[in-house]
Amino acid sequence: MQRQINHIQRRPKINSPRTILLLIILTLILQPQFFERNLYLNEVASLFGLFALIYKTNRKIFRRPEVLATLLFISWGIIRSIFSVFSIESPYAYFRHQSIIYSALCFFLAIWLYKDVQYWFHNLSKIIKRSIIAITVIPIPGLIYRLSALYIYPFVSEGKNLKLRLLFIATCVVALSISHGGGSGIIALSVAFFFYLIITKPVLFWFFSLTGLICTGLLYAYNYEAFSTSESLGLISLYTALPILAEDPNSLIRTYFWHLSINRALDSYGLGIGFGTHLFSDWQIPLVFEDSTTNDDLIYFLFPHNSFLGVFARLGAIGLITLTTIVIATLKSYSMKYKEINQFDFSILTTFAFAISVSLLNVVIESPITAGVFWFIVGLASCNGSQLKTHTKQGQLSYQTKLRREI
């Protein structure tokens, strides 16, 4: 094992094109709004992801379910995009929505750069790590993007004690949320906790998950009339119908978005509404803008603040099923039954948990600003989980061989 690590550490060079690509990904993580809008770095990363898929990907990885599901996700997205041509309302929105498809190519970019990420994880100096932490928590507006900065902390945290590293990461997330405002980071931290339950305490995970689903279903059924009415009367009607949610406007708006998204997907017979069309109408979500033209354009770029429901609304049941398969298959690869995860495994898993939890509460996969980074992290987790699974199988085979010899 040590020989393999040494081989990995000697492999990359500072002036390597792969290192430049990693810097592009790091730039997209820290400040995607500026660099994507001005330099189109997400498109650059996606283009190299296509190159990696065609020329650098070992065909054996296509046996893995999450890889096949990613290819199916892209393929179905292309098919749905072609049929969307017949229902385009805004050509500009149609091309902007394509980022949902091509950003998934960053999954294969991560597979190509996996060993380089592993190298820099073991060789990045402590000064650089601490500088990155300082940059993210300094309350300077516009310096970093507070949501994707969560992905950095698992890689710059230090120490062999994983529980202490978890505590350190949680402290950084809280500091980031306080210094830059907003509670999305803390909520994402809470949701990420459930991903550890999947691996460490699956019984508890299913207990909390089923309890949450049942309570949500009962609350939705109890207030079904209010939601049904709001679909024709708009968001304002929910303020009077659901005073508890009205105490937190963000929760109310998200709940309304989710309700409308599910209904739009079901109204399309589970095929999704496609690209270039509006998901919500402006009268349903009254917003005040100085320029009415901006308001007209905005309706094409309003998403439900839950990427899984956003994919469901645009790509239908096939898009949702493939995306869910990718996440479940990747998580299934992680197992601590036969092998304890090391520091690098811990960092990848924690970052993956943050990426999924952030996507459940925000616009991630649907936006070119954040989609490429999301798929890159999922690709890293796929590689890492597959590596853990391989080591587990090798350990089981070695143990069985040893038993046979003793018998």
Structure at a glance:
The chain has 407 residues and is mainly α. The protein is built from 21 helices and no strands. The radius of gyration is 22 Å and the shape is globular.
Protein topology:
Layout: H1 2-10, H2 17-30, H3 32-39, H4 41-56, H5 65-84, H6 91-96, H7 99-102, H8 106-123, H9 126-137, H10 153-156, H11 162-180, H12 184-200, H13 202-222, H14 224-233, H15 236-241, H16 243-246, H17 249-267, H18 292-298, H19 307-333, H20 343-359, H21 371-406
Explain this structure to me?
The protein is mainly alpha-helical and 407 residues long. The chain has helices at residues 2-10, 17-30, 32-39, 41-56, 65-84, 91-96, 99-102, 106-123, 126-137, 153-156, 162-180, 184-200, 202-222, 224-233, 236-241, 243-246, 249-267, 292-298, 307-333, 343-359, 371-406. Residues 1-10, 287-294 and 396-407 have low confidence and may be disordered.
Q: How many DSSP E strands?
A: 0
How far apart, in Å, are the first and last alpha carbons? 28 Å
Output the helix-strand order.
HHHHHHHHHHHHHHHHHHHHH
What level of helicity do the residues show? over 70%
The biggest sheet, with number of strands, parallel, antiparallel or mixed sense and barrel status, is:
none
What is the gyration radius calculated from CA atoms? 22 Å
Mean pLDDT: 78
Give the helix tally.
Answer: 21
Strand content: under 5%
- Stretches where pLDDT is under 50 for at least 5 consecutive residues are 1-10, 287-294, 396-407
What structural class do you assign from the helix and strand content?
mainly alpha
Taken from the alpha-carbon principal axes, the silhouette is globular
